[in-house]
Amino acid sequence: MWISSTWVLGYVLGVVAQDVDYSQFVNPFIGSEGGIPGYAYGGGDIFVGSAVPFGMVKLGIDTFELPVNQSALNGGWTPQGKVTGISLMHESGTGGGPKYGFPSQMALTTIEAPVNVLDNVTYWQDRVGDDFASVGYFRTHLESGVTVELSASRHAGLYQYEYPSTGGKHVLVDFSHYLPHPTRSWDSQFYTGGEIEIQPNSSVYTGYTSIAGGWNIGAPVTVYVCGEFDSKPDSAKAFQGKNTFPASRHFRSFDNETIPHPTYTGSKARAGPLNNRVGAIFSWNSTTNGAATVKSRVGISFMSVEQACAYKDQELSTWSIEDTAQAARDEWNRDVFSKIRVDTSDKANKTRLALLYSSLYFTHLIPSERTHENPLWESDEPYWDDFYTMWDLFRNQVSLWHLIQPTYYESMIRSLIDMFKHEGYLPDGRSGNYNGLVQGGSNADNVLADAYVKGLRGKINWTEGYAAVKKDAEVLPYFDQNPVDPQGSLKDGRSALDDWIPLGYVSADRNSRAVSKTVEYSLNDFAVSQIAAGEEPADRDLYLRRSAGWQLSWDPEAKSRGFTGFVMPRYANGTFHKTYNITNCGDCNWSDESYEGTAFEYSFVIPHDVSRIITLMGGPSHFEARLDYVFQPNTSGVDLGVNGLGITTINNIANEPDFQTPYLYNYLNKQWKSVHRSRQLATDFYFNSTNGIPGNSDAGALNCWLIWQMLGLYPVVTTPVYLLESPWFEDVNVTVNHNHTLRIRAEGLDDGEGQEGYYVQGVSINGQEWVKNWFEHEDAGGIMSEGGEIVFRLGSEQKVWETGDVPPSPGHAVVDVGGGYL
């Protein structure tokens, strides 16, 4: 391996930098709100609260806001919503239906009428002033005068309530609380049972809650609970009450619906055959302990009450909210933030620091690491949940985890393969121990292929991994009767294989989302071919040929905005939908012909065969003209809504299919235009503010796009290729492959005051002058596995500096399917 003195210096600085508190630069509210007139949605829908990296517990408030705020459905937090509870489980950044929001507590100053603990509306609370959050810590002030402080470990949460000097001190434990969907019954969660027991002569309660449904219409999830207060309550009584709520909402309607009052049952309450709601009220006299503070620590487990209690005792050995928050910060600094180290001195650009480290934070909230917490089958393999979803994650986020989180990432891959072994399919989405929803293709195939071609092996059983992706490619899943799509399964696999295998494309008359599925199935089969090349070489050519199927949906006569040739809906008889609006996909949803993107956009989304796109669009000059056009303001023909707040261009950087499009100029050896377009998008739509991302965070996918942008690189999914762009920092040290250092330096970088520039004038990798605008994972002695140094020479000139080959198109020229069937 080539080593320079600058690389050694970077390594030394990296060791020293591990003592830096990078968490101070994180803004946990980036993307927490936003929106445009006419849309009652937040911005990134992110979780605001306390969590550790990939933690099972994400402790935060649950709120209800009208008009319905999307953020309340998953992250729980909204800027103006009323607090209905404080629960231990949440998603983050997701744009679909709700999951979790349980188990819950709520601090109350009275339990007298009109308060009814079975009716959220009678005790929900507005907040006073602004909430405060930092890594590992959250604080809010309720209108009742109670101050709530929260912190969390991996499987447990610590609550601290500071009560006012007047009024009572009560904590409601509600095992029937969950995040509802007030307007869609099929998309809501619902309570299916529970049990609570207050341990005699103690401050401990135990039990379980079971919640079903939600975004993926999942089976009931049972969570065992072990809670404890720091002082024995003066009164503790369990209750049960009739479960009157329909599945569509957790709150009573506003039409004077009568809600029954609870029946207090002593120290125990069970749901019973009627699925009664259960919970408990704990109360302290005003003189107890001579203080107005009540603390509670709660462990949860999917396995048993005993395991929940062990987590509570072992992970939260202290009652100190400060110590617990500090432990969380230490873990984030050690395991996440210190993996990418930049100058944090007084002279550093603090906005860029906030964007970088906040983005790293949001890319490590989900999925959830749940090893030893799999209630479905016994296995020695790791277990993960909350892949919400692969459709979002595969584009660039898994490639980052591959570099900076190899242990976690290997664990994820092993878990995915284990799910296939025991449940029959890899998940495209998964939450609450249940697969679904499949937004397009079987995109876990892409995840596995990306890991495989970059050499991730470890304890992964790739024989089984290949069997998993091959099943996705060959076996039609059963129809799960999901109401959002009457034409195919949304739980597992590829629902349109009945078209894809015989026709080579997905037909518009027999299946939904024909355009986007055809594009995605093509990449899926390319991913299968990449793994087959090493595991079952005889299969490689079959799937490589099938990966060209998108060309069967290419209508060379389709015209839009002065351009000719697009992927289009095609019927089973071979004819095209000639009147299809290429720039408007309607609702762009489950039952439409293209999902979350127009045909104009999807015509660029063939990462394994860009050279063929260029040819079909009329050659390099026509391709470049069309690429220029999609970035022009006021060209969008569709109402993007929450998936593109304020974006007026055809290219929608708020939506995952368009993530790579700004970088396609590299395939013309005009890298400076990729830098120009992507930097413009980043500075136009990413800010250190509550509306600081252009759409749903999507489990951190939008945040991860920005991380790659700031590093000056971009991965081409399912291949070992990285595109060279332009870094935002003079010196970046990235820990790759456990303990190696990749140093990225920028000479002549724009200092934020307009000096110098950010256009590339030249690049060297490990001391070798680099004439290509791309490189592969193992180039230059293993630059991305063994480490080394990439040096960018930057300036203000928009320069064509590259003279080497354009990035490869490994799916190209296998078979020309331009006018016939495979």
From TrEMBL:
It holds the Pfam family Glyco_hydro_92. It comes from the Eukaryota. Keywords: Hydrolase, Signal. GO terms for cellular component: cytosol; nucleus. One of its GO terms (molecular function) is carbohydrate binding. This is Glycoside hydrolase family 92 protein. Residues 1-17 form the signal peptide. InterPro entries: GH-type_carb-bd, GH92_a_mannosidase_put, GH92_N, Glyco_hydro_92, PNGase. Residues 25-301 form the Glycosyl hydrolase family 92 N-terminal domain. GO terms for biological process: glycoprotein catabolic process. The keyword Hydrolase applies. The keyword Ion transport does not apply. Residues 307-795 form the Glycosyl hydrolase family domain.
